Amino acid sequence: MVLTLSSPAKVNLFLKVVGQRPDGFHELASLMQTVDLCDTLHFTLDKEDSLTCDDPTIPTDGTNLILKAAALFRRKVQKHFGVRVHLEKLIPSQSGLGGGSSNAATTLWALNTLLDWPATLDELKEWSAEIGSDVPFFFSKGTAYCTGRGEKVKMIDPLPAKNLWIVKPEQGLPTPAIYNRMRIEELEERDHEAALESILQGESRYFNDLEEPAFAIYPKLAAIKEKMIDAGFKTVTMTGSGSALFCTGDSKPPQTPDIRSYATAFLNRSDNEWFKPCCGG
Questions:
Q1: Cα(105)–Cα(115) distance, integer angstroms
Q2: What's the average pLDDT block by block, 10 residues per block, for the chain (281 residues)?
Q3: Rounded distance, CA 239 to CA 245, Å?
Q4: Which pLDDT tens digit goes with each residue over 194-217?
Q5: How far apart are CA 229 and CA 27, in angstroms?
Q6: Is the C or the N end of the chain the one with fewer CB within 10 Å?
């Protein structure tokens, strides 16, 4: 039996760096939303784990979060199995779109399905935090207020449907470099709780505290943002630690060398079902 599932990207509608934690991580507050830009994963139970990918730049060894998720699930449910996975990659890497975290969550859901649900949804969400801070979010229905390192997930009712564009320059941005460059005392003071309420009321109060250090490391990204604003978009905001930007409004990104554009939309899932692309992924 082959189980095929979509693995959606996410955007941070806002991302506030609240402070530095004693464990060295940063305390965050973010409203996160899955979007209809998806990888596709094909799962088959096998004697041992294996991973293939149509993108040769993606590692397929034990460093990939898909195989880390399989190992974690096997350890938690204490079952002996292997899984063969083929990944069709569409979400760009080093973009802030959460592709790796989404792949890990999708893998946990797939294995739980193939093995007749030995774990609850709450257990999957709890276990997934051991893989990465963003992974638990993908066990929400697609809209959630995330705090802590990002692993504390409060589900929120789906927001009104919204179309958007994601633009991604060829250069990616490594997350550690962005946080190392950031100075909390230099960040603009923003009320993230007020931003949350505003967005829930239908306003587009989007922001990202990591934009400033990202633009300092990669000035071209700031220029790309200005270009998208000039093109007529209502809002242009970096997602995660970059280098992707999401753009809202009645416009279209101008064709630019070394920049990929993706038309997408907010995506949510139903109870007891995984995410299903609404327009082909």
A1: 16
A2: 97 95 87 98 98 97 98 97 98 96 98 98 97 97 96 96 96 91 89 95 96 96 97 98 97 94 97 85 42
A3: 6
A4: 999 999 999 999 999 999 999 999
A5: 30
A6: N
Cβ 98 vs Cβ 105: under 8 Å? no
264 HSE (CA, 13 A, CB side): 27
Kindly report whether the peptide bond that precedes residue 241 is cis, defined as omega within 30 degrees of 0: no
Instruction: State residue 214's pLDDT score.
Output: 96
- Confidence (pTM): 0.96
10 is catalytic: yes
**Hey, how many other C-beta atoms are within 10 angstroms of the C-beta on 257?**
6
Reply yes or no on whether 258 is catalytic. no
Tokens of 133: 């801070």
In order of their start, the domains of the chain are 3-155 (3.30.230.10), 163-265 (3.30.70.890)
Q: Are 210 and 238 in contact (CB under 8 A)?
A: yes
For 218, list phi and psi in degrees, rounded to 5.
Answer: -135, 80
User: Could you give the CA distance from residue 246 to residue 1 in angstroms, rounded to a whole number?
Assistant: 37
Alpha helices in the chain (DSSP H): 65-77, 99-114, 121-128, 175-181, 192-200, 211-217, 219-230
Q: Which of 36, 39, 134, 209 is catalytic?
A: 134
The CA dihedral of 143, 147, 150, 154, to the nearest 10 degrees, is: -30
Rg (CA), the chain: 18
Asked if 281 and 275 touch (Cβ cutoff 8 Å), the reply is no
